[in-house]
Amino acid sequence: MSSSASSSPSSSSPSKQADDPLPDPAALLKESSTTTKDLKSVHLVQSVAGKIAEMPVKRLEGDLSREPAPAAKGNAKITIMAAEVEIAFVEFDRRLYVALPGEGFKDYGPTSNVYDVAAMLDPNTGLANMMSDFIDPKAEGRETVGGQQTIRVSGKVTADAVNKIVPLDTTKRMSTTVWIQESGDHQLVQAMLGPSKDDYIEMFFSNWNVPVTVDKPALA
């Protein structure tokens, strides 16, 4: 995979300031949503815990960009006919290109037919929209995630906001937790959402606005 940084995110750990007063969660979500709306690119590490039948992508690591157009590239582990397969993928010009093990890239059609991961950066329907859609948010504590000092905020998000980020086809509000930088630009560092405490999707974000170049792959 091509990435300016592909290190795995560190596990969350309590900070020394855990007893300090926490910021207002609604205000923090608003600030982070505004920052994320302007986000041009990001590095994503995503994984599925438990069983989520609607989500064929079990793990994904890649770079996402929305300028000059939505695009992404990276590696993923997907389920094909009950078997897990490692692939390389490229999203370019709203089409998905996939290379199976030992094969070259092939055109798998419109990204909307599979999983449009680059859509996370859409300023109107992506992650920024999800964070502005929180219902009854609660600030739960401080944690260090991937070297970033964050505030953990939990609440529920509407089905529409969730489905525009990940293809879960849910019809109910979904429990969601986000970890947001406490200072600076209030970037989104981590997100976790799912139908239950044992079945969820976890996302780690880094390399905010680091330039990403995605080219259309040569086809096999």
Question: Which secondary structure elements does this structure contain, and how are they paired or packed?
Answer:
Elements: E1 13-14, H1 25-37, E2 41-49, E3 57-65, E4 71-80, E5 83-92, E6 95-99, E7 105-110, H2 127-131, E8 135-145, E9 148-157, H3 159-163, E10 174-181, E11 188-193, E12 200-206
Antiparallel strand pairs: 1-8, 2-3, 2-12, 3-4, 4-5, 5-6, 6-7, 8-9, 9-10, 10-11, 11-12
CATH topology, which one? outer membrane lipoprotein receptor (LolB), chain A
Q: How much is the radius of gyration in Å?
A: 17 Å
What summary fits the major beta sheet?
A: 12 strands, antiparallel
| Helical percentage | 10-25%
Instruction: Determine the structural class based on helices, strands and strand pairing.
Output: mainly beta
Q: So what's the CATH class?
A: Mainly Beta
Overall pLDDT, averaged?
91
Give the overall silhouette. Answer: globular
N/C terminus separation:
18 Å
Tell me what portion of residues adopts beta-strand conformation: 35-45%
Provide the spatial order of strands within the biggest beta sheet. 1-8-9-10-11-12-2-3-4-5-6-7
**What low-confidence regions span 5 or more consecutive residues with pLDDT below 50?**
1-16
SS element count, helices: 3
Total number of domains: 1
CATH architecture: Clam
The count of DSSP E runs of length 2 or more, i.e. the number of strands, is 12
What is the H-and-E element order? EHEEEEEEHEEHEEE
Family: Belongs to the LppX/LprAFG lipoprotein family.
InterPro entries: LolA/LolB/LppX (IPR029046), LppX/LprAFG (IPR009830)
Subcellular location: Cell envelope
Keywords: Cell membrane, Lipoprotein, Membrane, Palmitate, Signal
